[in-house]
Every structure is written in structure tokens, then in C-alpha cells.
Specification:
The chain is an alpha+beta fold. The strands form three sheets. Strands 1, 2, 3, 4, 5, 6, 7, 8, 9, 10 and 11 form an eleven-stranded mixed beta sheet that branches. The chain has a three-stranded mixed beta sheet with strand order 13-16-15. It is globular. The N terminus is likely disordered.
Length: 340
Amino acid sequence: MGMIRCRGVSGMKEGIMETETARRHDARAIEWHVRLRDGDDRAWEAFADWLAEDPRHAAAYDAIERVDAAIAPLLSEVSFAPAERTAANDDAVMPASDRRVRSWLIAGGALAASVAAAIVVAPQFESGRYDVATGPGERRTIALDATTVVALNGSTRMTFDRKNARFASLVGGEALFRVRHDDAAPFTLHVGRNRVEDVGTVFNVVNDAGGVRVTVAEGEIVYNPGDRGISLHAGQGLIDPSSSKTVRVIATPVASVGGWQKGQLLYGGAPLSSVAADLARALGVRIDMAPAIANRPFSGAIRLDGSGLGQLERLAPALGVTVQRGSAGWIMKPGDGAAR
């Protein structure tokens, strides 16, 4: 009897310890979820190290992302009671990204139990492919496993496979990939009818109405592997326009790859239509382009300052355009003697 009783107590202790460990993983995953929204390169490196420490870290982070995706559409309908005491600087307007983080933190206490339950229960019923989408101006980070992390820019839709962490499909939008190469199972990204295969790398891909753009920051990728595949190394990129069958290989500054994560957009002769698409994703607005200037090249750096539409209007002279409000968003038109 004594031995049986001891085993029971031991089992209870082990269960309690496992629960506490899971809670610590969940709490840390939430911290990373918030931190990576504006994380720099060092933050990403630290995040990758954390994922590699324990396979459960990736599972916890992925679960937090799923919960956030389910909660996000509801936050706009929730009214949070004002605090009884207001700090002196609370009259300042809070940026949208900060309001989102604050909503996460305020809701965190009430959600803790449901988050833990979702982490334990949800994976048991999930299988096969699933979609992840971001709204205009929204960003998300998906950890497919401890060595593969995908960051989605605004207005982006992707498809993943819970049974295959080496597969992804960029349906539309923009994403940055950090992938560790595996000769036995290379990571393959489907972009419409095209494929991107990694050879151990960090790379950025855009898939929009203008076509496909790929840039490489580290390592190497192969675009459409096969006899006519195109290999790209760090500092290279390609443009595969939807209006032509000619794929153009270009040089690209390594620092510019995935620069949208740090609020930095760098261009060297990019068509204005691509610049407009990048701004639309970053600012969370629709921007249409007058055909007459869609292919006009632009070279320069744009530092996103978080002011949204105000910045779009201030950028117009530097881009050599005028911007007007249309029925469905904004329209870029040729400027009147503006800088080109």
C-alpha cells in the first residue's frame, strides 16, 4: 500500500511539474509573439535559439499564433474599461500596433486558461493543410518547426501543412523566410505555378498582381528547380513579371531583404507599381496606380514612420506622383513637375 501511495504522489508531482513547465513555455511564447512584431535582427536570432532549445517551444509559439488569429477579429468589438488612474502621458495617441499589443496584455489574464487548453487539445484534432492570412498593415510570425520561421507582411495569405513543415505556399502578398537547409528534405515554397527551393538561407518573396519578386539575404535558393532553374545567392534577386515570360536577375542590397520588418524599404530601379504595392502592405491601405507611371523606375530609401496615410502624402513629391483618394482607397497619378 505504501509503495502504491508513493507512486501516486510521485505521479501527481510529475503531472504538476509538467503543467508548470507548459505554462512557462506558453508565457514565453506570448512574450516572443509580442516582441517579434517589431523585432530587429538580434531579436530574430535570439528567437531562433529559443526555438532550437526545445521542440515544445515551437509548438507553444504556434499555438499562441493560432489563438491570436482567432481572437484578433473580435478585439475591435471589445470595449476595455478605462483604468481608474491615468498616467500623465496617457493622453497621447497610441499607435495601432501598440494598441494591439496592449489588447493582448489586457486580455491575457482572462485568456490564460483557454490558451493552455487550446495548446493541449487543439493539435489532437488538427491535420492537413491550413491557411494563414494577415489583414492590411498586420504582421504575423509562424514557426513551422525549430529551424523554419516565416514572417508574413500585411495583406498576405499563405498555406501550410501540419504534416510537412518543409512545405509552404505563398498565395499572395509578401513573406520573409528563415530556413535551415536539409539535403534530405529541402524546404519548398510554392508561388503560384512557380517553386522556390532553399539551399540554407534567409530570403524574401513577393507574389502580387505585378508578378513574383525574390531576394536573398543569406545562403542560396533555386527558383523553379530543374534544367532551367535559376540559382540566387546572397545579394541577388529576381523579378518574374506577370506581364512577361522573361525572368530578370538583379543585384539587391542584403540589408534591404525583408527590410519591411524594420520599417525600411530600399529600392534600386524598382517600378513604381512595386513600390506602391509595398507601401499598401505596410500602411494597410489600397493603392491603385495610373498605368502611365506603373513602370517608372524608382531608386531610394523609404523609412516608415508609423504615420500611415500622412506619410503617403508626404512621400508623393519624392516619388514624383500625386495621390488622390478614390472610391476604394488611394490612387497614384503623375506628379506636376515633382521630383523623379
